[in-house]
Each structure stands twice: as C-alpha cells, then as structure tokens.
Amino acid sequence: MKRREFILALGGAAAPSLLWPLAARAQQPAMPVIGVLGATSAQGYAAQLAAFRRGLAAVGFVEGRDVEIEYRWAEDRYDRLPELATELLRRQVAVITTIGGNAASVAAKAASRTVPVVFHGSLDPIAAGFVASLNRPGGNMTGVVTLNVDTGQKRLELMHELVPTATRMALLLNPSNTAVAEVQSKDLIVAARTLGLQLDILHASTEEKFEPAYAALKQLQAGGLVIGTDGFFVSHSEQLAALTVRHAVPAIFQYRAFAEAGGLMSYGGSVTDSYRLSGVYTGRILKGEKPADLPVQQATKVELIINLKTAKALGLTVPLPLLGRADEVIE
C-alpha cells in the first residue's frame, strides 16, 4: 500500500476502532498525586520509602497504578525545604507526606494550611504546633510520632552498661536541626549526670564534619558515642558505622542499618512500623478522610540490635543480661 493510501485508510471506517484506546485514556480521570517532601535523599531512606509504599498498598494504592508520587529531596540541605514544599503545592498534590525528620514537617506546615500533611517525626507534635491534640488534630496535619528522641537517654544507659568503666561519653548532634538538637542535649545532659558521667557534645551538619568529630573523641578520651536522632545522620548510617570501626569507638545509633553496617549497637523505633503507618494514613486521606479526624499515631515498637562481631573487634565483652534483651545479635 502506498503511503497516501495508508493515510486514507486510517481516515476511513477503521479509524474509530484504532483511535478508541487513546480517546478512552484521555477521558479517564487523572490519578491523585502524593507529594513526598524529604529532608535527606532517596538513597539514604530507601528502607523507609519501601515501608511507606507497603502502607499505601495496604489501603489500595500502588504507585503508578492508582497514584502518582512526586518526590522532592533536600539532599541534607534543610534550608531548601520551604522552596521544595512550594514546588509540591504548584504540582497540586492531594497530600504531602514528610520523610526524614521534623524539618520537613515544619516546612510543609508553613507552606499550606489547607493541603493535608502526614508528618513523620520524633518531637512532640503539639509543642511543635502541628496539631491541637493527639486524638483530635484539628487542622490539616496528622501523622506518626516515633520514640527516637525519647529513647536517647536509653541509648546512653545502654552504652554505659556496655562500657561501665568509662567516665566520659560523647553525643553527636546536627546543629542545623535546632529543635531536635536542643531537646536531645538537655535530656542527655540530665541522664549523664544521673549516671555519674561527663557528657561532651560534638556537632556535624555536613559529611566533612564527621571526621573531625570522630577525631575529637580520642582527645576527649570518651569511652563511647551516642549518635543523636536526625534525618541527616540516618541517611549516612553506613558512613557513620565505618567511622566508628576505623576509629575503634563503641557507638550506638537509632536504626538497625547502623549496626548492620558495623556499628556496635542500635536502639530505636522500627522503620518498618512507623513509615508503614505513614503510608496507611496517606492512603486513608486519599480516600476522603480528613487529617483533623485522624489521631496522631505513635510507633511504639523499638528494637535493640547488637553487633557482637564489632564488640569482639573492640575487645568488649557484652554482658549476658544485655545480650538477652537484644532483639537481634549480629555475629
């Protein structure tokens, strides 16, 4: 068939049946769009994103099939979060979900008082101004609160139990996450005093600051390190673990990825539990429920992971009662 004849054939009786799928797709309603506002990076939060998607799927939303997801990542530049939140609003998202800590939630709150926001954080959401109450949030925000800030004192206690002869400990904080850093420093100073320990506070807000902070531990003669709760630190769990091994520092952090990568211990809320709950709430809002009526959930599951291989490399003997309380021992 010549080219002109083929074109004429498309314009004949066969044209409607050939073009129908395109017309049908054009008439289909657009999928709702979720905006994910992340303080760190997709790579650093891969496990959390997977848990979030499982929560979405549990209430009937699969990415690419039932819903689109627009991602905006600050790549550890918290000052970029307000701009990224505005970008999501211009995309006309149906709901914003925050990932990577309280800084993203603060930016989402400031960006809109009408678009639903599902926050994920470790600070008191009432004190932060996100909700009026836990049972009746009352505005456009609801979400999931983890125990990771509250368990900071427990992490110091665990480190003291493992290294009972140490008289000094260190706490690593991200000073750019002001609200969280202030709460943790106050809480752990009190806890250290109770345990008869001196606590030195170190700061790191960029990757370049990690090495000097770890080098300072030897000068301070700190017997152990507690890594503070922060999304930036979470996204660099493996790097922090590698530094603790290289500097031979007993250290504890909040997520299991740290212990799996060679860190000595992790103690904190379950990633699977908390981010799955965020996904469920996001899906329920897409189905028509209002954030004002969805009580703030608290992820209460915590995990203690001990890397026995690292303990042996550091010449530490883990007390049997501590081993017995561990949810997992890596050998």
**From the alpha-carbon coordinates, what is the Rg to the nearest angstrom?**
24 Å
In the sheet with the most strands, the strands line up as 7-6-8-9-10-12-13
Total helices: the number is: 14
- First and last CA, distance: 72 Å
CATH fold-type name of the largest domain: Rossmann fold
Q: In CATH, what is the homologous superfamily of the largest domain?
A: Response regulator
How many domains make up the coordinates?
Answer: 2
DSSP helix fraction? 40-55%
Low-confidence stretches: 1-20, 22-27
CATH architectural designation of the largest domain: 3-Layer(aba) Sandwich
Highest-level CATH class of the largest domain: Alpha Beta
The description of the largest β-sheet is: 7 strands, mixed
Described by the principal axes of the CA atoms, the overall outline is elongated
* Mean pLDDT, all residues: 89
Class from secondary-structure proportions: alpha/beta
Topology:
Elements: H1 3-10, H2 15-27, E1 33-38, H3 46-58, E2 68-73, H4 81-90, E3 95-99, H5 102-111, E4 117-121, E5 141-145, H6 152-162, E6 168-173, H7 178-195, E7 198-203, H8 210-220, E8 225-227, H9 231-235, H10 237-246, E9 251-253, H11 256-260, E10 265-269, H12 271-286, E11 297-298, E12 302-307, H13 308-313, H14 320-325, E13 328-330
Parallel strand pairs: 1-2, 1-3, 3-4, 4-5, 5-11, 6-7, 6-8, 8-9, 9-10, 12-13
Antiparallel strand pairs: 10-12
